[in-house]
Write a structure and sequence with these properties.
Helix 6 (177-192) links the parallel strand 6 and strand 7 (196-200). Strands 5-6-7-3-8-9 form a six-stranded mixed beta sheet, sandwiched between helices. Strands 2-1-4 form a three-stranded antiparallel beta sheet, covered by helices on one side. It is of the alpha/beta class and 255 residues long. The chain has a single domain (38-54, 75-248), classed as P-loop containing nucleotide triphosphate hydrolases (Rossmann fold, 3-Layer(aba) Sandwich), CATH 3.40.50.300. Helix 3 (103-113) packs across helix 4 (118-131). It has helices at 52-59, 77-87, 103-113, 118-131, 147-157, 177-192, 204-210, 228-235, 240-248, and strands spanning 12-19, 29-36, 41-45, 67-72, 88-91, 165-169, 196-200, 213-218, 221-226. The longest helix has 16 residues, at 177-192.
């Protein structure tokens, strides 16, 4: 079945999504409607506090909304949580690795948590080490790795279960150019294979290069959405950064 078949349910669909935090001055999300087709490389952009992390946490099933609906591959968390979680992968912004274990041991532990075992776990571990270009360091402790190596391992842990949807929260922050280039190349390969990717980043040039569709978010609502080239043409902006600042302002958001 073609992952981009328009007759299928969207990969991700929300309607009227609301989230309020008890001590916050305003809602984190205010009636958010979002549809992401299967096989899209979707970039979610916004300043600090715009609601990106809240959206990701709800879509990954880590937090419940206060209102609205969420459907992942046509399924709802309240009825089919286990099936959904078998189909998604998550790459968090914070590196989540065991420093005193080797790269291979980290992959085995996380693979077992995902329910993998036997030959399947061995196959996926080998695949992930190859994708991250860490096969020669597979049996070295993660504590000895550079920041870029840790980021690459952090990324491929999200691929262990061969997910249909991969959620990535700023996966290239603070790493060297070579590691960023490798991660970009691997993500483009996943996209070409039909994986749906939801990607948050503060690097405008990264979003413009990678994403087939972007949404610019602020104060819990989407301000503009579409293919980057079309948005620039419609706005007469020369760059995504210019469009982003025009919509969200230049005031620094330190929160």
């Amino acid at each position: 079945m073609n992952p981009r078949d328009p007759g299928q349910d969207p990969a991700i669909q929300t309607a009227g999504l609301i989230k309020k935090y008890r001590l916050a001055d305003r809602p984190a999300l205010t009636g958010l409607d979002l549809t992401i087709g299967r096989g899209e490389f979707f970039g979610l952009l916004g300043p600090n506090g715009a609601g990106k992390t809240t959206i990701l946490s709800i879509l990954c099933g880590l937090r419940a909304p206060d209102g609205g609906t969420v459907r992942i591959l046509g399924m709802e968390y309240r009825r089919q949580q286990r099936r959904i979680q078998e189909r998604i992968g998550i790459v968090p912004q914070e590196i989540a690795l065991y420093d005193q274990l080797t790269a291979r041991e980290n992959l085995i532990i996380f693979g077992r948590l995902l329910g993998l075992g036997g030959g399947r776990l061995k196959e996926r571990t080998g695949y992930c080490l190859e994708i991250a270009q860490l096969h020669e360091r597979a049996d070295h402790r993660v504590a000895s790795f550079s920041g870029g190596m840790k980021r690459r391992l952090n990324l491929v842990i999200g691929l262990l279960n061969a997910p249909s949807i991969l959620f990535l929260d700023e996966p290239t922050v603070g790493i060297d150019t070579q590691s960023r280039h490798l991660i970009h190349r691997q993500l483009q390969g996943l996209h070409a294979q039909g994986t749906t990717l939801l990607y948050t980043t503060h690097y405008m040039e990264e979003a413009q290069e990678l994403c087939s569709t972007i949404a610019i978010l602020d104060e819990g609502r989407i301000l503009r959405q579409g293919p980057p080239a079309r948005l620039l043409q419609e706005s007469a902006c020369h760059s995504l950064e210019e469009l982003f600042l025009g919509l969200t302002g230049k005031q620094i958001r330190d929160i």
